[in-house]
Design brief:
By secondary structure, the chain is an all-alpha fold. The protein is built from 22 helices and no strands. It has helices at residues 3-30, 38-49, 65-81, 91-116, 125-136, 139-143, 151-166, 170-183, 188-214, 226-240, 243-270, 288-300, 302-305, 308-320, 322-339, 344-348, 353-362, 368-371, 373-385, 392-406, 418-427, 433-456. Helix 1 (3-30) runs antiparallel to helix 4, helix 4 packs parallel to helix 7 (151-166) and helix 8 runs parallel beside helix 11 (243-270). The longest helix is centred in the N-terminal third of the chain and has 28 residues, at 3-30. The chain is globular, with a radius of gyration of 23 Å.
């Protein structure tokens, strides 16, 4: 990092943190007590603060990573500054932990962008800072900076693990992956992703060597024809059935393998992935979740994915490959028909934006969910098109992880899309400065609207005196 870029980054990060502190103060002034899931998280953390580590709320679904970190930060701070009484482990104090995580996420996002795109010398320091600021203000994540939820900490440890993986520190990466797992069990998928990065890199090296030996320059690891796909499948089978290659891959990925083994041990002992409230968090094959994620990604990355050039190229692709798109359309319609699930929380809780998305869009008519298939196909095409700079093996690995983290979820919840979106957005090429500024402006507007609604558009239920607020 050059000195001018270091000064600029420090100024941007400091300014973003100051703004977050001001918003944090405003939100804590309006909503002093626990809200929504904080009603479970805050009392649990307060029990840990009092040393009651065996006390557990059966409605909490995640492991106690957030509460352990909170106690590890708040207790020493209280001793150092002489805090006593109700201020220690209050809702506001616990929420401040996530503000610290958000600052850490800001720095990690910058380091990841620098590492992933270090070979692209055309990228300027200004572009890196803009992209970092934009991703740090990603609305679905930024909102939960101000509440005591698991998301900021979950993202912090997962991004940190990914960064260490890219630098080849795999034991450290696996340890950080364990911390992420303690915040949210599904983060084990991103441990597999880190291992997959290592495997994809080795596969790509071997693939290029194989092509060089055959002197076949017409085939590359980025093409998508059927014959190329068959050749890649044959190569994968040959490579992954070689004992020598398996030994090499195991030697590189053993820290991740051990963590995955710990995860399966936990699942066997626990009798499932979630810790509590299991009746409301049952796994299923909810394939339309992939379509919802693609739509979510296009919405929040429209400056990159929804351009006139991409639309023209997509229509040209439709004309060139009508049979392939017909098969994809039929498969999509079948998956929507047989595998659409509607969670009871989605229909019952009018505090979440997903409630209104479902009611205003999907519940308008029974055929709406089928009519959206062309939009899903375009979203999938433009999503994949932006990843064409990555190797086919990286894309396959990411897609498998994306399926694993979205499809088993019965509930449509935008928070579940945060990590797969960030991983995707970090790995696409840098857009033009204009598109970056447009994306940042869009995020600022969305954040302003959501925070305004949360603070000022309150309402009450007929059977409760509590103030209700709109949120992601």
């Amino acid at each position: 990092m050059e000195r001018s870029e270091a000064y600029g980054f420090s100024a941007v990060m400091s300014g973003a943190f100051l703004l977050s502190c001001l918003l944090f103060a405003a939100i804590n002034h309006r909503q002093r007590g626990p809200y929504m899931d904080e009603a479970f998280h805050v009392p649990q953390a307060q029990a840990y603060c009092r040393g009651r580590f065996l006390q557990w709320d059966p409605m909490i679904t995640t492991l106690p990573g957030l509460y352990l970190v909170s106690v590890g930060v708040v207790k020493p701070a209280a001793w150092l500054f002489g805090w006593t009484g109700s201020v220690v482990c209050s809702a506001g104090m616990l929420r401040f932990i996530n503000l610290l995580f958000s600052a850490g996420n800001f720095y990690l996002l910058y380091l990841l962008l620098f590492k992933i795109h270090q070979k692209n010398k055309a990228v300027s320091g200004l572009q890196r800072m803009l992209s970092t600021l934009t991703l740090a203000m990603f609305p679905t994540l930024y909102f939960f900076t101000f509440l005591y939820y698991t998301d900021p900490g979950s993202v912090f440890f997962t991004l940190f693990a990914y960064l260490m993986c890219l630098y080849g520190n795999h034991k450290t990466s696996a340890l950080l992956g364990f911390c992420g797992f303690m915040f949210r069990q599904t983060n084990i998928v991103w441990t597999v992703f880190c291992a997959g990065n290592v495997v994809a890199e080795k596969l790509n090296e071997a693939w290029k060597t194989d092509l060089q030996k055959k002197k076949d320059e017409k085939i590359s690891s980025r093409k998508g024809s059927f014959s190329d796909s068959i050749r890649i499948v044959k190569f994968l089978i040959k490579y992954l059935t070689s004992p020598k290659n398996l030994v090499v891959l195991t030697a590189l990925t053993w820290p991740y393998v051990m963590l995955v083994a710990v995860f399966f041990g936990f699942v066997c002992i626990n009798g499932g992935i979630v810790v509590g409230d299991r009746s409301s968090h049952e796994a299923c094959l909810h394939f339309p979740q992939l379509f919802y994620f693609l739509s979510f990604t296009v919405f929040f990355s429209f400056p990159h994915l929804l351009t006139p050039t991409k639309i023209r190229r997509f229509l040209l692709s439709l004309r060139k490959h009508p049979v392939q798109y017909s098969v994809i359309t039929i498969a999509s319609l079948f998956l929507i028909w047989k595998f659409t699930y509607v969670h009871k929380y989605l229909l019952a809780d009018n505090r979440h934006y997903t409630f209104y998305v479902w009611r205003k869009v999907f519940q308008r008519h029974e055929l709406v969910k089928y009519a959206l298939v062309p939009a899903y196909i375009f979203a999938g095409w433009t999503f994949a098109d932006t990843l064409k700079s990555k190797s086919i093996f990286w894309i396959l690995m990411y897609f498998v992880c994306l399926l694993a983290v979205t499809v088993p979820q019965k509930l449509l919840e935008f928070r579940y899309f945060i990590l797969p979106f960030l991983i995707y957005r970090l790995n696409i090429p840098f857009p033009s400065l204009y598109r970056q500024l447009l994306e940042l402006a869009f995020y600022i507007v969305v954040n302003a609207v959501t925070l305004y609604l949360f603070l000022n558009r309150t309402f009450q239920w007929s059977n409760s005196d509590e103030i209700q607020r709109f949120m992601w």
